[in-house]
Amino acid sequence: MHEELATVLGLMPDEQKSVVAGREFWLGHLHGHEVVAVLSGIGKVAAATTATVLIEHFGVRRILFTGVAGGLGADVRVGDVIVASQFMQHDLDVSPLFPRYEVPGYGIAVFDADPGLTAALGRAVQATLADLPHVLLPGVVETFGLHAPRSHHGLLISGDRFVATTSECRVLQQALPKALAVEMEGAPFAQVCRDYGIPFAAVRTVSDRADDAAHVDFLAFLRQVASRYSWRIIDNFFRLSQIR
């Protein structure tokens, strides 16, 4: 989202804009690393296009993704953070030709995150949550009830619809009980990165429970919580990791 990108650009002292495939890519440096920052676009096709341009046009060697998601796991709460270890598309169904969820031509339904990149991202998340009073503005914790937010590691599922009803949420929970959260871009990024052999890791802030209340204060949460999480997680990642 634009609010998240703006906070990341604030960490880059020398960003320069480059427009490719109708997207604004921002090239610069972050803690001494050459980086490219961009909005993924919403939905699976937009995400796949963005991932491909990052790799083909800009030659990136690894990709980090930040964003928001709707919580599905029983112990996942608003304000928690999901560090994805696996990705799959919950709305992909080519049965009876292939098993439900399996991606034709791959023989699998689940794509793995890069272990090293994911571990480094997990450490950045822990450092961020441990310093929450300095990440969020005064009063925000109370406003959104963000008491003792936690990080979770596991399956993130993607699909081309915004899940925002309790009935839809329950269907996903029953069909994919291991899924921690639902969003719209992670699985296509993971698939494209697998095609090119590019390490990929993703983190999602839980903005809602993907139910009938999912629309409540979403924009306020994005501005006051999720965008600040993204800023500090990315900052901590580059400061704390040994990724080169």
Helix content: 25-40%
Could you name the ranges where pLDDT drops below 50 across 5 or more consecutive residues? none
Name the shape in a single word.
Answer: globular
Summarize model confidence as the mean pLDDT.
94
Q: What is the CATH architecture descriptor?
A: 3-Layer(aba) Sandwich
Q: What is the number of helical segments per DSSP (H or I, 4+ residues)?
A: 8
Order of helices and strands: HEEEHEEEHHHEHEHEH
Strand content: 15-25%
Q: Please give the CATH class.
A: Alpha Beta
Structural class: alpha/beta
- CATH superfamily, by name, is Nucleoside phosphorylase domain
Largest sheet: 5 strands, mixed, barrel
Neighbour order of strands in the largest sheet: 4-8-7-5-9
Number of domains: 1
Tell me the number of strands. Answer: 9
Write down the Rg: 17 Å
End-to-end distance: 27 Å
Question: CATH fold name, please?
Answer: Rossmann fold
Structure notes:
By secondary structure, the chain is of the alpha/beta class. It has a single domain, classed as Nucleoside phosphorylase domain (Rossmann fold). 37% of the residues lie in helices and 25% in strands. It has helices at residues 2-9, 44-56, 115-130, 132-135, 140-144, 166-175, 186-196, 218-240, and strands at 16-20, 23-30, 33-37, 63-71, 81-89, 111-112, 151-158, 179-183, 200-208. The chain has a 5-stranded mixed barrel. A 3-stranded antiparallel beta sheet has the order 1-2-3. α1 (2-9) runs parallel beside α8 (218-240) and α3 crosses α8 (218-240). The two termini are 27 Å apart. The model has no long low-confidence stretch (mean pLDDT 94).
